[in-house]
Amino acid sequence: MDRERAYDVVLFGATGFVGALTAEYLAAHAPAGCRWALAGRDPAKLERLRERLAAIDPARADLPLLRADAGDAAALRELASSTRVLATTVGPYVWYGAELVAACAQAGTDYVDLTGEPEFVDRTYVEHDARARETGARIVHACGFDSVPADLGAYFTVRQLPEGVPLAVDGFMRSNALLSGGTLASALTALSRGPQNLAAARARRLYEPRLPGRRVRGPVGAPRFSRETGTWALPLTSLDPRIVTRSAAALDRYGPDFRYRHYASVKHLPVAVGGTAALGATVALAQVPAARRWLMGRWEPGRGPDAERRARSWFTVRFVGEGGGRRVFTEVSGGDPGYGETAKMLAESALCLAYDTLPETAGQVTTAVAMGDALTGRLQKAGITFRVAHAR
């Protein structure tokens, strides 16, 4: 363990809605001797959060508080240099995240975030992957509900299938959860930046190495009734399938020819039709600045579902994997996906990078590539289910 740095883990954006939940999780679950700190731009809010954490564990009354602003490059460089792992909840990341990734790549600091923004992920790969490889930093995006259940769920499914053969996996996601203001702001920002998303994806393709002798695909499936799950399957063009296919491209275990498709899973046809129409309307509104501002104003960042509503929330991702004459049905499930479980996933990802024996990786990598079995095991112990439902 590197004791030359002051901290093992720093949580940046700790006073936001998900940031505070992550801080509470760390206060309850960080191992003895873990040197961690809270960081943000408002010292008064950090003080109030520390008081809440001290109610969970009186030892947290002396938790270090670090001031840094997402737009202050010098402060972010100092922050990155002070810790072994930096976890951030400050989004939309395309606006507020680039300087922090740059600082971590330069300092050789491991980095985890909650982004679901494809443009941001592609841009940081182009701009910072090479430097992170040189310094040994592991830049791991999408360490929350975007995209841990999909990425580790597909990884878990692949490990139930034969090696060295073509594999196909479909993921079907269901949830009853609500959005917070911060999540809505990030989603609307991503939807409003179609040309920028395309440009970032094209730039990344120029940098990414080819796969000699292997093929990885992530086609957008067609809406259909899924006999495997007994639900209507609507294709999801989120960050999740991109993360899964990047894990597949990096790991030979996914076979010589791997295909992944990602769906929302809906029980009733009218709900499926209505959901498709609502998504189309949201995409259209996101293109109009005044409408986008109106939508963001209805759910301000920093607010989200209360504890009672979160306690009733759940998610399930079912996977159907095939290859080598074997078919397997697996499932990843848990509680409130966007907040309680996302905070758990982010915190456990940071602790995993800080403490676990992991594969030798560097640069911009996925959760499956960087942490695979270790993070899956941590999340299982923390109450998220990974199981084989059926195999033949």
Distance between the termini: 44 Å
Strand portion = 15-25%
Largest sheet: 8 strands, mixed
Shape: globular
Detail the poorly predicted runs.
270-286
How confident is the prediction overall: mean pLDDT?
A: 88
How many helix segments?
16
Helical proportion, percent range: 40-55%
User: If you compute it from the alpha carbons, what radius of gyration comes out, rounded to the nearest whole angstrom?
Assistant: 20 Å
Task: Give the total of beta strands.
Answer: 15
Describe the oligomeric state of these chains in a short phrase.
Answer: single chain
Structure class: alpha/beta
Can you tell me about this structure?
With 392 residues, the protein is α/β, with parallel strands linked by helices. Helices cover 45% and strands 22% of the residues. The strands form two sheets. Strands 7, 8, 9, 10, 11, 12, 13 and 15 form an eight-stranded mixed β-sheet that branches. Helix 1 (17-29) packs across helix 14 (340-355) and helix 6 runs parallel beside helix 9. The protein starts with 6 loop residues before the first strand and ends with a strand. The model is unreliable at 270-286 (pLDDT under 50).
